[in-house]
Structure formats: structure tokens, C-alpha cells
Amino acid sequence: MHTQLDVNGRAYALDHDPRTTLLDALRDHIGLYGTKKGCDHGQCGACTVLVNGRRINSCLTLAAMHDGDEITTVEGLGEPGALAPLQQAFVDCDGYQCGYCTPGQIMSATGMLEEAKAGDPSHVSASLSGDVALDDSEIAERMSGNLCRCSAYPFIRQAIHSVEGKE
Amino acid sequence: MYAFEIERPTSLSDAVSALKAEGAQALGGGQTLIPSLKARLAMPEVLVSLSAIDEIKGICTDDEGRICIGGGTPHGRVAAELKDSYPALASLAARIGDPAVRNRGTIGGSLANNDPSACWPAAALASDAVIKTDRREIAADDFFAGLFETVLEEGEIVTEVRFPVPQAANYQKFAQPASRFALVGVFVAKYEAGVRVAVTGASESGVFRWTEAEEKLSSDFSAAALEGLSHAAEGMIGDLHGTPAYRAHLIGVLTKRAVAAAG
Ligand SMILES: Cc1cc2nc3c(=O)[nH]c(=O)nc-3n(C[C@H](O)[C@H](O)[C@H](O)COP(=O)(O)OP(=O)(O)OC[C@H]3O[C@@H](n4cnc5c(N)ncnc54)[C@H](O)[C@@H]3O)c2cc1C
Ligand code: FES
Ligand code: FES
């Protein structure tokens, strides 16, 4: 079947099996290997991408469900030499060890900062409206879908803190 | 996954016709169905994706003041949009899984799936919600029919869920820390006509109303009114996370907490 995807600002016309997940389409059809497959079951967040600006697990969605959608992957944020602030912050803060979860962490954090900017409360927010102060517990809750097997969490939080409010 | 075809209707009427095909099944956010397909636990011949149907997405208020949530609305939108009009519902939605799951998973998919540990069934039952489909309206009291079973017919689509807004409400969830599904969850809602208490995660026959607690709370809406009342362990789920007696005990504890938090 045919699906049209806009990935990182470039149009791709895919001819694929209906069973192809968005994750497999990105990696195997388009050749963007930044997005990682950790569990393939929606539990780890390694495959997080933005679809029309919202973070989702690309392993838990079929490419066919995204005809005409805008997808952003870690490659679309920035590249070596011109890293996005969050990418740079992960490097500066050592926000990883093996790096396998990192693209997912960065995509999720990118989506998360937008949500916080829009005033979306989280389960741990003291108040349901108004500005969201992203303290450690807020970041932990809002990033709860992204697991890090190396447990680099303190430095991931530090990286997020270091860009938050700066953009 | 076994092989299947995909249909991508953009209107409800096209989806209804597509679902008439032999072996057709609706695909909502895919947060439950896609893992089941991967595990080869489901083998639809045709998947009818509901994601491109705008008319079943979104939230509004009807003439009777009920909050109407489109069947294809993701949990994250409920969490963000209902924080003022029905905070207990927004709070329930904000605790489903994690943010990426909430950006895809839908209320219609959750109700149709009727997982015994899911959150939405408790909210619908406690709020005396009405589940609207492409062919009829079903009261929440009549909708759930046991583990992973509902009264939905073949190809029937949940298009909207209507929630009367209570005077006070709260959802207490004792989350299984890895999946964040409810080990036990209790939704308490106080209406002029009385108090409703719905329990998820606990029973071997799925979500249910705890009528003894409802009676006590309808005459005295306080945690103290529940003193001495306990739920029987018989018929409760026993698994590696908790025994039937443990779950039964949690029902009492969480109901009291919900009443105290609802105020
Ligand atoms: C990591 C993870 C954590 C989760 N945690 C929780 C949690 O804490 N609490 C909780 O309640 N849930 C949780 N879920 C489940 C989640 O809420 C799902 O979104 C939901 O159960 C199914 O909704 P869906 O839209 O994804 O449906 P799908 O997976 O697409 O479909 C599920 C079933 O419903 C049918 N269906 C879908 N939409 C409709 C419709 N509009 N009308 C009729 N039938 C329909 C499908 O045919 C299928 O049988 C979690 C899921 C994951 C992956
Ligand atoms: S690979 Fe998608 S969540 Fe783990
Ligand atoms: S850096 Fe290794 S999994 Fe996160």
C-alpha cells in the first residue's frame, strides 16, 4: 500500500506492507537510524518521535495511520556541528551512558517542553492551571515513558533543566 | 503480525461501511491492539483506522451540561482540556500510562477493550455516562459485560461518551508501578441523586459498582461513613501482584481516600 510521510521537512512516498510500523518505516524504508527500537511494545520510549508536534511511540503505530502527517525524528532537530540546544545539552551534561535511549529521551523532552510551555499540568503539578515550574519531580513524571537502562536519569534531568526556559 | 489490509476512512459513515467487511476490526489509537497484533493474539483481515475521522474527536458540552468526549479523542487531550470542567476526569486521563501513550490511546478504544484494569471504565460507570455509538446510546450500567467484553456488536463504533458533571468526584488509583495500570482503582462521584462508586482492577468479572458503599455515602458523604464496611475477597483477582484479600482491602482504603479527596 502507499503512504505519504513528511519526515523532517522532506516528503517520502512509501510503498509498504500494511503491517509496517512507523518505526520500521523510518528505519528500514527511509534509512533514518536515529530512532531506536528498544522493546517494540510501547514500554520503553526509545522509539519516540514527534507526529504533528506531539510525542508518540513510533513502534505502537502503523505507518499507514500517518498518511500526510509531519514526523520529526532526532535527525530533524539538528546535526553534528549544528545541534539543537537539547542535543547539545545531553552532550554537555553526559545525559547518557550507552546512548541507546538518547534519541527517544531527546524527542520526548522536546515534546515535553512544548507541553509545559502550553501550560499542560501533570499528575504531580500542585496547581492545575497557570505556569508549570519544571522541578525534578515534574521532569521525572513528564519523562516517565522514557526508560534508561543505564540509569543516566540525574544527568538527563540536568540536561533538560539546562535548556528549559532558554529557548 | 498476521497479514491484514488497512482502510483509512475520513468519515464515520465510510468507517461504518468499511467495518461491514468480513473479518474487519476498528483500529483506534492502537495502544492495545497493535501489541496484540504483534503477539498474534488478534487476526483481523481488515483494519479500519479511525484516526483520520475528525467528527469523532474533540470535547464539548451539550444542552444538559454533560461533557461529551468524542470516541476518537486521545487521553492527553482530556487531561489538558477538562482540568476546569471535570477535574477528576482530567486527572484520571493524566495518569494513564505515559505521555506518549496518552497522545495516541483513545477513550473509545479503552471502553471497547474493557480491560479489567483500565481506568476509563471506572469513570464511565461512576459518572453514569452514556456511550453513544454509530447506531444507539448505551448507559454505562448496561455497557460492560465482563472481562474484555462489552455489549458492542460486530463493527459498532463508540462515537462519543457523555458524562454528567458531578458535584464532587475523585479517582484513586493504586498503580502497578511498571505498567501504571490500576492494581485497584476507585472512582467516586457525588450527584444530586446519590453517590456512585465504581471499582476497576479488582474483580474477576471486570469493573463493578460497590453498592453498599454507595448507600452509606449517599446519606453521609464522608470517609467516616465507610467505617466498618469492607468488601469481600471472593471473586477478586489473585495474581503475582496481589491476592484477592489484598485487592479487597485496597477497595476499602481507596474508596475512603477518594471520598476524602473529593471533599
Ligand atoms: C505502556 C502502556 C501503558 C498503559 N497504561 C494504561 C493505564 O494506566 N490505564 C489504562 O486505562 N490504560 C492504559 N493503557 C491502555 C491505553 O489506555 C489504550 O489506549 C487503550 O486501552 C486502548 O485505546 P486505543 O485507542 O489505543 O485502542 P486500540 O488499541 O486501537 O483498540 C483497542 C480495542 O478497541 C477497539 N476500538 C478502538 N477504538 C474503538 C472505537 N472508537 N469504537 C469501538 N471499538 C474501538 C479495537 O477494535 C480494539 O478491539 C496503557 C497502554 C500502554 C501501551
Ligand atoms: S521501542 Fe517503542 S516504546 Fe520501546
Ligand atoms: S544511556 Fe543506555 S539506556 Fe539510556
UniProtKB/TrEMBL annotation, chain A:
It holds the Pfam family Fer2_2. The keyword Iron-sulfur applies. The keyword Iron-sulfur applies. GO terms for molecular function: 2 iron, 2 sulfur cluster binding; metal ion binding; oxidoreductase activity, acting on the aldehyde or oxo group of donors. It comes from the Bacteria. PROSITE patterns: 2FE2S_FER_1 (PS00197), 2FE2S_FER_2 (PS51085). Residues 1-77 form the 2Fe-2S ferredoxin-type domain. Keywords: 2Fe-2S, Iron, Iron-sulfur, Metal-binding, Oxidoreductase. InterPro entries: 2Fe-2S-bd, 2Fe-2S-bd_dom_sf, 2Fe-2S_ferredoxin-like_sf, 2Fe-2S_ferredoxin-type, 2Fe2S_fd_BS, Aldehyde_Oxdr_Iron-Sulfur, Beta-grasp_dom_sf. PANTHER family: OXIDOREDUCTASE WITH IRON-SULFUR SUBUNIT (PTHR45331:SF2), OXIDOREDUCTASE, IRON-SULPHUR BINDING SUBUNIT-RELATED-RELATED (PTHR45331). This is Aerobic-type carbon monoxide dehydrogenase, small subunit CoxS/CutS-like protein.
Automatic annotation (TrEMBL), chain B:
GO terms for molecular function: FAD binding; oxidoreductase activity. Its EC number is 1.2.99.2. It is an enzyme of class 1 (oxidoreductase). Gene3D superfamilies: 3.30.465.10, CO dehydrogenase flavoprotein, C-terminal domain (3.30.390.50), Uridine Diphospho-n-acetylenolpyruvylglucosamine Reductase, domain 2 (3.30.43.10). Coiled coil: none annotated. InterPro entries: CO_DH_flav_C, CO_DH_flav_C_dom_sf, Diverse_Substr_Oxidored, FAD-bd_PCMH, FAD-bd_PCMH-like_sf, FAD-bd_PCMH_sub1, FAD-bd_PCMH_sub2, Mopterin_DH_FAD-bd. Residues 1-168 form the FAD-binding PCMH-type domain. Keywords: FAD, Flavoprotein, Oxidoreductase. This is Aerobic-type carbon monoxide dehydrogenase, middle subunit CoxM/CutM-like protein. It comes from Wenxinia marina DSM 24838. The lineage of its organism: Bacteria, Pseudomonadati, Pseudomonadota, Alphaproteobacteria, Rhodobacterales.
